[in-house]
Amino acid sequence: MNRELKRVSFLVIAFFITLFVSASVIQVGQDANLSADDRNTRTLYDSYRSQRGAILVAGQPIAFSVPVDDNYRFQRTYPAPLIYSNVTGYFTLSQGLTGIEGAMNRELSGTSGSQFLNRINSILTGKDPQGASVNLTLDPLLQQAAWDALGDYAGSVVVTEPSTGRILAMVSKPSFDPNVLASHNTDSVISAYNALLADPSDPLIDRSIAGNLNPPGSVFKLVVAAAALESGQYTADSQLDNPSSLQLPGSDSVVSNWNRGRCPGAGATVTIKQALRESCNIPFAELGLALGRQALLAQAKKFGFNSSFEIPMITAASTFPTVMDDPQTMLASFGQFDVRATPLQIAMVSAAIANGGKVMSPTLIQSVLDPTLTSLFDFTATQYSQAISAETAASLTEMMVDGVNNGLAGNARISGVQVAGKTGTAENGVGEPYTFWFTGFAPAEDPRYAITVLVENGGGLGQEGLSGPIAGSIAKQVLEAELGK
After folding, report:
1. Could you tell me the fold of the domain covering 218-365+381-483?
2. Model confidence over 239-261: pLDDT tens digits?
């Protein structure tokens, strides 16, 4: 009898231990995942009943909570909604949360593990719980300048600090007003949300880091030129064939330069630096094929292609194809075929060149402070990779400066400031409008700002426009606003 009781007792104890471990795993080990799950509405509703922390730019709130007389006690408000909406995202009762609001939700709502003692203190003292404030790396002057310069174009402007990876401006247009989604009237929020979803201009998509990514066109020639110099087989003065047209091997397709003739300023051959300055497709198609698809893929990956980044939002991975035949490799060598990129990724390429070949991990988060002003996080620059050598970076810088001073990137020229830059005009299919790009950095001799401009839909010009007069001019306007202050 005693033996049977012991067995039953051991069995009951084993059951309790199993239940205890399971509950601990779910409540403690899976706490972060459960809190972040969009389906966990209780966490979202609870976060309304505490004072959510502010999102700050240069010490000024671009999102904060105000007291209201309803069951939720606080409502989110955005004082400069359109300029920052792609960064802040939205915070809603019924349609989830995005942007910094989503990626930093646990800190803003005060539910992160590092804020546990603050929650206990609130319970013991009877004080209302309060979330942490998130300070962003954005420069308000640059953000405003980027917003103004982009005007009515659909696209994006991204500015980073080459030496640290801090994102100083990140604008996406068309934009939206997150205030209409912050209402506590669920019907109103759903109506506004559905209208935004139905808008053909896709204002909810952050074009700087996501969406239907665009082919980078000629700005990708920087990656190919980097691969050539890094191979040790080429210098900036290496000669490439310079025909007026080139039929792709085993294909009926013919590649042309933008001027439908030979690369300007050269004869039967052209140097790599001339081809980059004049943005000629044929020499880069030849160069890419000679280097080989694996060398191009390896170089693109070093710059960050085929990887996502947590800034803290998760960025879409810019892509360079892993499988290509020779014709496809040649098209990819000037940013066509299936090459796709975000403006942030292209900004990382320019920033790496400006930073002696070092790619820094991009971020929007400068610091996180709890309500007692105790720091929960402080920014520390981290290196993602050494994409190219310092010597290659210096050579590419010279070529990009030449492109602004004497080539197709001349619209980005600023009096008294050396600007390094590269334009790109990408094709999107038969009859489809072009995509315009500019990427570069300034001052070229002591880089403080790396900038990338994306203009979609041909800037309203279909296939008639060029990137320099539009994207290059936007970059100039943004850089002048900061360098001229």
Report:
1. Beta-lactamase (3.40.710)
2. 999 999 999 998 888 999 999 99
